[in-house]
Amino acid sequence: METVEQSHIDDNENAEDLVSNMQALEDLTEKMKRFMSASYVQEIHGKQYPKVEWWNTLGALVGVKPIVIDDNRVDESGARHASEGEITWESRVELRSTRTGQVHGGATSMCTSHEKMWRNADEYAIRSMASTRATGKAYRLGYSNIAIGAGIEATPAEEMMGIEKADRFTKKPKQWGKPDAKPVEFSSVPHAPVVNTAKYRTLSPP
Questions:
Q1: What gap in Å lies between CA 159 and CA 141, rounded to an integer?
Q2: Cα dihedral sign for 71, 63, 99, 12?
Q3: How far apart are CA 139 and CA 62, in angstroms?
Q4: How do residues 109-163 score in pLDDT, each as one tens digit?
Q5: DSSP characters for 70-117?
Q6: Which among 153, 190, 176 is positioned nearest to 55, based on CA atoms?
Q7: Which residues pair with 89 in a beta bridge?
Q8: d(CA 12, CA 95)
């Protein structure tokens, strides 16, 4: 029976690759921390959410780019609010290597006129947002650890914009009176003058 001696060369190579990958991951995370302006991230409820520009910058650094594979308008019979004339677009995006064209990830997302933010939007804008959301989602599924390491949320900002808009127009409870007004002491309120009715004569009907 032939015996084969096991080699640890592959294990050592894997360990070296792991260390190299960890260093590359740290370097990439530090680079992405430079892109924290309003052009790349959006603040919602005190948290920072990455825009599609942030994700595409990350893609440029790692050598992948988003490709729209398919986008189509959902048939009215498949829409939840078809009776209300809802416009719904669905888009699928794949992340592909800029060098080899190999697929590195993908996602599908939708945008609909039933959303408050898109209720009065043109159809082309709804269609475009479906692709934008799919792009951010595809990056999040594969590179959410980079966003977390950079100190921001992993959820794409485009998925949170409806919540941000709704919160902006939420009415605050009405406050009566001035907040700094002092309570009124009844002892300081002047009393109405007391009228002596005894001096007034009652008139008898004629």
A1: 14
A2: negative
A3: 11
A4: 999 998 888 988 999 999 999 999 999 999 999 999 999 999 999 999 999 976 6
A5: EEEEPPGGGSTTGGGT--EEEEEEEEEETTT--EEEEEEEEEETTSGG
A6: 153
A7: 73, 111
A8: 31
Q: Answer whether 0.90 is exceeded by the pTM.
A: no
The two beta strands, 103-112 and 88-97, are antiparallel
**Tokens describing residue 170:** 């939420």
